[in-house]
Design a protein that fits this description.
Helices cover 44% and strands 13% of the residues. It is built from 16 helices and 13 strands. Helix 12 links the parallel strand 11 and strand 12. Helix 2 packs antiparallel against helix 3 and helix 12 packs across helix 15.
Length: 420
């Protein structure tokens, strides 16, 4: 093992049971610690769940988007400083302040702790505060994919000019991210597809972006003990948000088409936003009794859903990686996926049936094919598990990340020596 490093791992929000950020922070910090590095997580709300031995430093915000009171109005006594005021004012003008305000708070905190860390690793916030951090400490970031892609997909689906204007304001922080990313000491991403997108949307040369796939713990995400554990004709999808990018509406339309010929039900690991695209589609398609939304679930329950599913659907219109696909493959569960983003790269040609993104007819046909052929389910499941064990474990992610840290530190040291 190389040198032991002291790492500050930053995450502006870290939902423990949904969304990739909380999963990434928990798993990477745990595995780096087990490799002998000291990792301290600095996070805003919602705070992550971390493994024993990984300290958490809370970087509290006004928590303006917390459930069940999103877009809330803080009490006057909650405002502590100008950063809080900027956070509130940005929300009131339809912007999303957290990437900026979190990094400003983190920079203020780290200014008095430069001797505690060898390197700072940001998880996708890419706020201007990181440039202050970089003056004192080597600073790198993970970009899972450029959020500008989410913006473009939502703008394309917006039903009105007013909605497009509001979305443009909400996603204004993506311009900041594109300015900050090229000025850090290093960037990593999770797939070759995301590396190409970072180059296109953020202007960072491909050679300056390290590809380090994320993964799973194969002892946790594993096939069921018995084949009979799987329920008949139950489709599972995991979605962190009810937004066009996740392709939930095309999946619901495919389910409605499938149910004209056979019984089938869908379990959504996630939520439907009241009045959102998925919620509206349920009534339009008459699917209220056939679809269950679980909300965020603990890891143990997620594994049970994957182990008992007939098939897992990944209907996304874009994916920078797709951790849900890897989790399903690790459980030996067959996949039906689109060809969007990194999905062909991650899933390969033997672990799932692939269809064009947004094609409802082909999505329905692929789901029916897998549901109706147990031998195909078995074949796809075995191939998926083998693929994960060879390429997608958190230990491998941590080993590659630690090696990358060393390369970044060596480059920065060499650059500073050369400038003296």
């Amino acid at each position: 093992m190389g040198r032991s490093l002291r790492v500050a791992l930053l995450s502006y929000r870290s939902k423990p049971h949904s969304g990739g950020q909380g999963v990434y922070v928990r798993a990477l910090s745990r595995e780096l610690r087990e490799l002998g590095h000291r990792v301290e997580v600095l996070s805003g709300q919602p705070y992550p769940e971390l493994d024993p031995g990984v300290p958490l430093t809370r970087v509290p915000s006004l928590d303006l988007y917390r459930e069940p009171d999103p877009f809330r109005t803080p009490r006057p006594g909650e405002f502590r400083d100008l950063v809080d005021l900027a956070e509130w004012a940005t929300m009131c003008t339809a912007g999303f302040p957290e990437p900026l305000t979190f990094t400003l708070r983190a920079a203020r905190l780290l200014a008095s702790r430069t001797g505690d860390f060898d390197l700072v690793h940001d998880n996708q916030s890419l706020g201007y505060g990181l440039l202050r951090v970089r003056r004192r400490l080597p600073t790198v970031a993970t970009v899972h994919h450029p959020v500008a892609i989410d913006r473009d997909l939502e703008l394309a689906a917006a039903p009105s000019l007013r909605r497009r204007v509001t979305l443009g304001r909400w996603y204004a922080f993506t311009r900041m991210q594109a300015r900050v990313a090229p000025r850090l000491d290093g960037l990593t991403t999770v797939s070759e597809s995301s590396r190409r997108d970072i180059t296109a949307h953020m202007g960072v040369p491909a050679a300056a972006v390290e590809v380090i796939p994320v993964g799973i713990d194969p002892e946790v995400f594993r096939p069921p003990a018995s084949r009979t554990a799987r329920e008949a004709a139950r489709i599972v999808v995991i979605t962190s948000a009810d937004v066009p990018l996740k392709g939930l509406v095309p999946l619901l339309e495919a389910l409605a088409k499938l149910r004209t010929e056979r019984e089938a039900v869908l379990t959504v690991i996630g939520v439907a936003r009241a009045g959102g695209p998925a919620d509206t589609a349920l009534d339009r398609l008459g699917l209220r009794g056939a679809v269950r939304f679980t909300g965020p679930v603990p890891q143990e329950e997620l594994v049970r859903h994957l182990q008992t599913a007939t098939v897992v659907a990944i209907p996304s219109l874009y994916e920078g990686f797709s951790l849900p696909a890897v989790e399903a493959m690790a459980c030996g569960t067959p996949l039906v996926t689109t060809d969007a983003g990194a999905l062909p790269e991650v899933v390969g040609s033997h672990a799932g049936v692939q269809v064009p993104a947004g094609d409802v007819d082909q999505l329905a046909a692929a789901l029916q094919l897998v549901i109706d052929h147990p031998s195909l389910q078995e074949q796809l499941g075995r191939s998926g598990r083998a693929r994960v064990l060879g390429a997608y474990t958190w230990r491998r992610t941590a080993e590659c990340t630690a090696e990358w840290y060393g390369e970044v530190l060596d480059r920065r040291s060499t650059a500073r020596d050369g400038s003296c």
